[in-house]
Structures are given as structure tokens and as C-alpha cells.
Amino acid sequence: MTYTRDDLLALDREDTLAHVRDRFILPDGEIYLDGNSLGPLPRSTAEKLHDVVHRQWGHDQIRAWNKYRWIHLPRELGDRIGRLIGARPGEVVVGDSTSVNLFKAIAAGLRLRPDRRVIVSEINDFPSDLYIAQGLVDLLGDQYQLRLAESGGLDDMLDDTVAVVSLTHVNYRTGRMHDLAAVTSQVHRQGAIMLWDLSHSAGSLSIRLDDAGVDLACGCGYKFLNGGPGAPAFVYAAERWHDQLSQPLTGWLGHARPFDFVPEYQPADGVGRMICGTPPILSMTALDAGLSAFDGVEMADVREKSIRQGQLFLELVDQECGGHGFSLRSPEDPHQRGSQVCLGHAEGYRIIQALIARGVIGDFRAPDVLRFGITPLYLRYTDIWDAVAHLRAVMETRAWDDDQFIRKELVT
Ligand SMILES: *Cc1c(COP(=O)(O)O)cnc(C)c1O
Predict the structure, then answer these.
(1) Is 261 a catalytic residue?
(2) Among the four residues 60, 105, 293, 295, which has the most C-beta atoms within 10 Å?
(3) Please, what is the average pLDDT of the chain?
(4) Which residue has the higher pLDDT, 152 or 72?
(5) Cβ atoms within 10 A of the Cβ of 102, count?
């Protein structure tokens, strides 16, 4: 079928998530398709931060740790993220960055399989995940090794030497998504520990870690969770492992009784032992606001809208931009795709820059991928239409073919 803008307007009118858009501050005249990289500003963030800065910190100073439960924020925010990823209360804590949580989680996984020495990951995974695994292997020495599978090549890598399989659920560059439950079962059949990086999944997909039997997971706070630039990340450990769980960054706030100030480390109960040092309260407050944008929202509805918007985007690119040399870089089947769509084009970088100049904010991943995040909390169906209309205009007028779009900034 051929779509018109009115068709998408009709979808907006019946969209049961439409009201959630008002929970965000979105600049007029812009279409934000980069919420998978940095979520936009929730409306409540500035007010919450103002309160924490002026009243809690400014007025109550050190007393605020108890009075406003600051000390409990890592677990409280963890439980709220848990609801979004199918975890029980007490299985998730918030703190540190995704990279640091990966370090702790891979190490914890290795300790759960002390007779094995191999970590398996994927060569096309997000580089930080690979660098962290390699760094840990280098630190451990003693025949530990990192084995990297090509995409789809996991089967050949698994044997009874593998301790931990660490994979990103949704690939950052292509949006390709693993079957979380099936891969977890496959890894368990080989006796290994399954660690998922949910950086591109939390807040965008309907996933159930407990039901899938996942062992460990971590993920990002500043992407679909809208926690602000550099927001603290989260880490999950299935309850069945809590008694045996241990990780090497044994900071004082992962201790059972930090204010006893004893010289010997004794891990806190449960997932609390994944905490290291003092929580960054200002950043946690911004993440709190980001999570509030999910109040009353069911992830199944978010996923359904995301699939519909992603499909429409691709169908409209076909309809409006056929003949302009775009190829599809994310899987065609929406059930194998996370919440982003990716196009390949030799002039990808300049095309994205020309779109940004027109207020359509996507991003670029080397060597030639145009990436568009689909974020149903605030994206309207008409935004999808308008974004593709801009893409068509950029191609038809060759607006991208301009010297101002050649120079690459450090952050693409
Ligand atoms: C965004 C992202 C990260 C980022 O890690 P930081 O420590 O926050 O810089 C790591 N891994 C994956 C898969 C990501 O998507």
C-alpha cells in the first residue's frame, strides 16, 4: 500500500502512548531519532535536581543521606529498572558505568565457573565490552582467554571450557537482536554462565530476564532510560546465584556493614555486593526522573509501537526514497531487530549531517551506517513520516553534497 501523511496522523490519534510524550522536553521543530544514544530531557529532571541540590543537599547537607534515603537509591532505582526488564525486586542495582559493571559481572561469572578459563563474545559487539573482557583476561593471566565469534557463529565457540558468554542483546550498529531465551538455554546446555548487555534493550524491549533464566546482565542508564549524559548504569544478578556471587571491586558500599569500618571485607546480601563506592546522587536523581517517564507504561505496549514505527519507517524509505542508493542494514524481520533501524549509504556521514541541519537528529556509525532510534515514549507516527520526507528532500536536492558536512567531529 502507499501511505500518506494522513494515514500516520490517524495512527497518532489512536496511539495509547501518545500522552507520554508530554513527559519530555523536546525542542520545537525537531525530530529526535537518537534516543538510543542519549535519551532526551524528561520534564521532571530539572525540578527534581533543583530540589536535591537546594533543599536536600543545600539545606540538609550530610543528614540527607538518611533523611532522603540517598543511601538506598542504588537498590531502589535498581528495582524500578527491574520492572522494565523482567527481574524480581532485589536482583538489580544501579551504579558505575556499563563498562565498569561489565568488568564486575564478567569477573563474577568467571568465579561461578572456577574450573573454566574462556570468555566468549562477538567480534561485532560494542568495543568497550570487548576491551573490558580483554583487560580482565590480561589481568588474570593464567591461561584465561577471550574468544570472539563472528555474528551468528556462536555455536562453534561453545564447549566445556567456556565459563562466561558475554553478549550484547541488541547490536549497537545494526540493531540485530539475539533471541535472549534461546541463546541463554544454549549457553546453559554447555554449562556456561550467560551475561547479557542490555544497553540497547532496557526501556525499549519487552524482556523477562527471570523467565529466560539469565544469570547476569548489565546495561546503560542514558539511552532508552533517559537518565542524562553519563547516567549511572545497572547490573542484574539472578537471585539463585546471590549466595555464591562475588566480584573483585570490593568497595565499602558493597560491604554488609559499611559503617562498622572493619578491615575485612564481608559482602552485602544479594545483589548489593555488586555495589562498589558512593552513589553519585545528582546523577541518580536524573536517572530517577528518567525512570519516572515509564510510570504506568507497559513495556509490551512500547515494543508493539516500536515495531510498528520501525516497519513504517522502512516502508516509507522504500516508498519515498527508492532509487537513492540506500540499503537495509538492520534485519528485515522486526522480531530480530531492537528499537532502531539502520540504512547503509556511501555518503552516510554527510547525509546524517544534512538531516541534523534540518532538525532530524539521527547518528552515524562508521563506516557507512545511518542509525535511527525508535523511541515510542515520545515519537509520533507523523514524526516518522516527516523524518522520511526530510530524507527524501536531502537526497533530491543533494543538500548533503556541501563542504560544511565533510568534517567529522569526534562524537559522531
Ligand atoms: C552504550 C554502551 C556502552 C557504554 O558504556 P559506558 O561505560 O557507559 O561508556 C557499553 N556497551 C554497550 C553495548 C553500549 O551500547
Answers:
(1) no
(2) 105
(3) 97
(4) 72
(5) 30
Instruction: Report if pTM > 0.85.
Output: yes
Other Cβ atoms less than 10 A from the Cβ of 35: the count is 26
- Give the three-class secondary structure for 27: coil
Name the nearest CA neighbour of 73 among 283, 326, 262: 283
H-helix or E-strand spanning residue 363: strand 363-365
Please indicate whether residue 371 is annotated as part of the active site. yes
Condensed to tens digits (0 to 9), the pLDDT of residues 363-405 reads 999 899 999 999 999 999 999 999 999 999 999 999 999 988 8
Q: What average pLDDT does this structure show over 254-283? A: 98
Strand pairing class (118-122; 162-168):
parallel
DSSP letter assigned to residue 337 = B
pLDDT of 72 higher than 80: yes
Say how many Å lie between the CA of residue 98 and the centre of ligand 1: 5
From residue 117, give the alpha-carbon distance in Å to each of 123, 171, 242, 373: 19, 25, 22, 37
